[in-house]
Amino acid sequence: MAEEARAHSWLNPGTPDTGEGNFDASYEMSRQWQGFITARLVLGFVLVTLQIALYATGTAHSQAQIAISAAYLAGTLASKLFIRPRPLGQSFNRVWGALVGIDLLTFSALQVLQSGPASISTINYTPLFALPVLVASVLGSMRLALGTAAGITMLMLGVSIWSYLQSPTDSTPYFVQPALSGAGYFAIAWLSNQLASRLTTEGQRARQSQLAASIQRQVNELVIESLPDGVLIVDERGMVHSANPAARQLLGSHQALHATVFDLKEEPGWFPLLSLTRLSVGTGQNHEEDVTIRHSNLGPRRVHARTRMAAPQGTTGESLCVLFLQDQRELEARMRTEKLAGMGRLSTAVAHEIRNPLSAITQANALLDEDVSDPKLKKLTAMVSQNAKRLEKIVNDILNVSRVQPYDPAHLIPALALGNTLHRICSDWASQNGAQRRLAIHGSDPATNVHFDIEHLRRVLLNLLDNARRHTHELAESIQVFTDVIDAQNASFSIWSDAPPMDQSVERHLFEPFFSSDSRSSGLGLFICRELCERHDAVLFYQRNVRTARGIPIEGNEFVVTLRRADAPDNAQTTEPTTTPWQPPLY
């Protein structure tokens, strides 16, 4: 998935990642070589066609020119097939002879035959010498280019002298024309070599800059891929062109996890992100907002979204929005960590210090209760015993917070049958509390197995059931337990009660430690439940949901726990007795 996401540049979606090889110097050399070879082949084909046409029309009667042109075409073709592209070097060599020498001999021979007394055509082949000058200037050094220009000048002077000797008339046209052409060829050689050297230097700088930019882009993409916060690149139509793994996990959809490009309009749970993106694109300003992503059969996920507008990309000037997503659970977890770091050591130390004198008070009260017979004194000792037990429970809850260890993926958590285990624990709780009429258990596939320690699951269930019993009335099916299979990797169970909705101030701090709407509660029950769930890679969340109770749909409070499924239950988790002693709630 990460490789697919990196196939698109982060701030230029759809542009392929070009590597250093596209700007390699050998590639440029080969391209120039092939360009000159192609030009020579075309020129050879034109010369052959021209000589044949002149001969056929009677304009020229020299078959030697046709043969020379054909030989030039064949030699050029052989050069293309058998000579490997490489620079010509500093001096005359075999490669120079194959490329430049053949051109010089061919064009000189054509010019000599053209200047002969038997020729009646008026074709001047002198401009063709510019081609070998360009080849030597671009593919060779300055010395080789000037040497080639000098050789061409000497050849033209030689042809002019030979022509003058054949018909001695005015010598000015014979020698002025080669001199001017030679000066032009020297200028072409110098300018072409200077331009080629400048382009080579600029090409090297471009390759270095491109390499540095490529490395920087790869580093940036690696940083974005490893960010714990989600990053999305979204256009004004809501199409997500790039997303890092953290963003795909936060979006919570199969399509977001696997598709390279997807649309925020495809999932109803993504509409808040789509609205925020359109707002930023429409106003051209940055915005941030707390949004909730909701999907069916999954709990709501609260994220803090921030938008940043990127520069318009492409020829159409399309605006892109960079969307940063931060999981609110992680923010709350960090806040809890900071909060607990400050009070954890203090509360644990205080609990240990209270435990010893509390035990002494309990023992002394028990001894005193044995010696007194006055009903009034008996009542006082009962009050002392009741409050001492309450203090002992608070101390135990505080110590339980320090005992909850973080989830370790390497730790092998035993598997258990979810449906049977929940039915057994809930039935035991109902019989202990006389709530058989109030409790209804709705099971799913009994073969559904999950990864969860059975004692920890018992603590979570007992706390949620006691919490539901506290806020409901003595009515049938006022408390209901549901189990469900979400997909091949996840299952869930929920505790629903027909309790009235919570106040927003209570719901906001529902899972925080030491927070409770009941003055007689320590406020650690739901906090420990969530800590136990997170230890087993499970998720506990609260929602308002409608269930059918007493034959009518009723809205109530529901606590849902999603768990990881297992292949088969562990034997040790399925051999416990059908009845187990009831444990007091965590608060």
Order of helices and strands: HHHHHHHEEHHEHEEEHHEHEEHEEHHEE
Gross morphology is rod-shaped
Amount of beta strand:
15-25%
Low-confidence stretches: 1-9, 11-23, 117-121, 571-587
Structural domain tally: 3
Question: Number of DSSP helices?
Answer: 16
Give the fraction of residues assigned to helices.
Answer: 40-55%
- Alpha carbon gyration radius: 45 Å
C-alpha termini separation: 45 Å
Largest sheet: 7 strands, mixed
Descriptive overview:
It is a single chain. The protein is an alpha+beta fold. The protein folds into three domains: 20-205, no CATH class; 331-403, Helix Hairpins, CATH 1.10.287; 415-573, Heat Shock Protein 90. The protein has helices spanning 2-6, 25-57, 63-82, 94-115, 130-139, 142-166, 172-226, 245-251, 254-258, 271-283, 328-371, 375-403, 418-433, 454-470, 504-508, 525-535; strands at 230-235, 239-243, 262-263, 288-293, 301-313, 318-327, 415-417, 439-442, 449-451, 479-485, 490-497, 539-549, 552-566. Strands 7, 8, 9, 10, 11, 12 and 13 form a seven-stranded mixed sheet that branches. A hairpin with a 2-residue loop joins strand 12 and strand 13 (552-566).
Summarize the structure.
This protein has helices at residues 2-6, 25-57, 63-82, 94-115, 130-139, 142-166, 172-226, 245-251, 254-258, 271-283, 328-371, 375-403, 418-433, 454-470, 504-508, 525-535; strands at 230-235, 239-243, 262-263, 288-293, 301-313, 318-327, 415-417, 439-442, 449-451, 479-485, 490-497, 539-549, 552-566. By secondary structure, the protein is α+β, with helices and mostly antiparallel strands.
